[in-house]
Predict the 3D structure of the following.
Amino acid sequence: MFDCLIEEALAEAPTHELALNILKESRDPANAQKLFQAASALRDERIGRNLWWTAAIEGILPCRLRPICGYCSYVNHEKLSNESLLKALKALEGLGFRHLHLSGGTSPAGYDAEILSMVEAMRGVSDIAIEVNLGPSFGRETVRRLKDLRVSCITSSLETINEEVFQQAKPGDSLQSRKALLEICEEEGVPTRGMLLIGLGESEDDRIRQLFYLKRLKGLRHIRFSRFNPTASGRYSSHPRCSPWEVARIVAVARLVMPEVQLGLAAGNSPDDIPLWFLAGGGNQLLGAAAVRKTPKSQAGVDVIPIEEGLWIVNRTKLQERYIHEMGLGTC
Ligand code: SF4
């Protein structure tokens, strides 16, 4: 029975109903194995198996949402100066990275001038591929300017498409504004990246609805999947941790629905999640290093490189390379 569902999904683009059916039936590990096998074979055929590195410069701007999201673990800092930003950029380039994303807090009043100034400064010294993730903190004119500055992708993370769950978790935020940014990018011909936060309280049907909402965007290049991880305090401190099983199964269904889209891991996942993610058809981008502003914890196999006071590069490349080589895979 489950084999027939997989065959149907491989024969032609799956419908919402079929994708939901597969997701539900894949709770059974015997079915999940078949799903993962089909999804990873599809990945190999359509985008290949080679994993590739990206980097991040995090916390570039303070988050101005009030109230803050109930699950927030972000530590606010003042705007990262352009001078510090360029130091982080050069350090990441020195480590060999050719692709990075800038992420920071959200501002309902807009961070248009700030992000343009930052990207212009970076473009003055580098041709690195730049992605931007600031929530819905800028409008159409800024999207156009970022396109002129050769920003390769803009993220608008809906987290969940379920309005009630979104509103409860993110009362200071706007699902509509996040959707509007994706629509603007689509109209302006700027590639986009979406994100799902798995385990926030959404249903399996919500997860599939969100995949199909993203699938219709012609500019969609990438979806990243966060795994809910409760913070020690706050409104969501007793909300259950999301299992890696939930993430792996939705990644695999996403692969059947969108064979050529990059499907990556985001917050709440760790390098230990890479093998299951890859088995489930995930691929092919890995976050190797990040410039961070929060004092990093030391961890075996992870290099911490001080850049200046309050700014470090945390490089997890070596640790992940070992995992990848143990799986017989390569990176580029
Ligand atoms: S958008 Fe929400 S989760 Fe993200 S930094 Fe702001 S308050 Fe925190």
